[in-house]
Amino acid sequence: MSTVADAFATRHGAAPTGVWFAPGRVNLIGEHTDYNDGFVLPFALPHRAVVAAAPATGGRSRVRSVQEPGAAVEFSAASVVPGEVPGWAAYVAGTCWAFREAGYPVGEVELELDSDVPVGAGLSSSAAVECAVGVALAGLAGADVDPTTLARIARRAENEFVGAPTGGMDQMASMHGRAGRLVFLDTRGDTVELVPFDLPAHDLELLVVDTRAPHAHASGEYGARRADCEAAAAALGVPALRDAGPDDLPRIADERIRRRARHIVTENARVVETVRLLSGGADPRAIGPLLDASHTSMRDDFEITVPHVDVAVEAARDGGATGARMTGGGFGGCVIALVEADGAAAVTASVREAFAQRGWAEPVVFPGTPSDGAGRLA
Ligand code: GLA
């Protein structure tokens, strides 16, 4: 994606100071556990947000996006506050704000953004932008900021500037991802362990199926699930559901809240078991049942799936997948399927056929390849 540097040079008559990137992510397992102080196991995708940037003159920052033709969005990075910049540029301005709030120097910037992370597919296109801007700001300031600090700055932009009440998984995956590795994150304390995930060595592949399901009420429902989890923790008298186990569940009187808690408690256990298997050198096929169980739990207990993703998961299994589940926040988005490398075509055909039968738009299927986290390109 050198086009973004070219676009910058064309507009400014000079090359940018640097070009930085940050990837989207897929979560292998561990859904909605991140805001419960729990465990997640995502990896960074090859799909990236890329920014070309240079210091600006004239006391204003100007940001443009290849995906958003039109005039540049202007704001002052030195003084911008939440509520001032709407739309896509809020991810950029919000990161400037959060970077400043963290005590780092922020000068005004000329910034050109490009991204091939699908938007609205649950692949963290927004975290990719925030993290790319974060590494760019650190680079421009000559500040040595560690990846976890940058991830926290990016998350603060998402939570407090954009106003989405997410956990911290997406930004940590975007910052810490590594080719061939999963990012095992303990969100209590943000400790990271990289776990080998070499599927080609086992003649396996992880397919990502973007169902293109229309996102309905995703942000409201996300907040509602958070509230349910907080109610469950309060009912149990624990700081977070991370601290609860299966034996605690009968103590939750409300049936819905109990099911929400059961998803989090069992999902945390599934993440830990997945890591145990993969770190111990097990055949990755062994995680198939955990992926399946995660999906069932999201569908029945946490109630965050929609017909498009349930159909995609079932069709993937019918087509021969070893395990399949929805990935990401839910209410649409993507499904992942662990498949034999020589069975990928059959799984893809099975999902396409199931969608065609229902008159749904054709899903987009691509291999999920664990890739490097944020950094400098040029
Ligand atoms: C979204 C949020 C994450 C996480 C997932 C669900 O991607 O941004 O913080 O909660 O949903 O696992």
Automatic annotation (TrEMBL):
GO molecular function: any one?
galactokinase activity
Q: What is its EC number?
A: 2.7.1.6
Q: Which residues form the GHMP kinase C-terminal domain?
A: 283-356
First-level EC class: transferase
Q: Which domain of life is it from?
A: Bacteria
Q: Which family does it belong to?
A: Belongs to the GHMP kinase family. GalK subfamily.
Give the NCBIfam families listed for this entry.
gal_kin
Q: What is this protein called?
A: Galactokinase
Q: Which organism is the protein's source?
A: Pseudonocardia tropica
Name of encoding gene:
galK
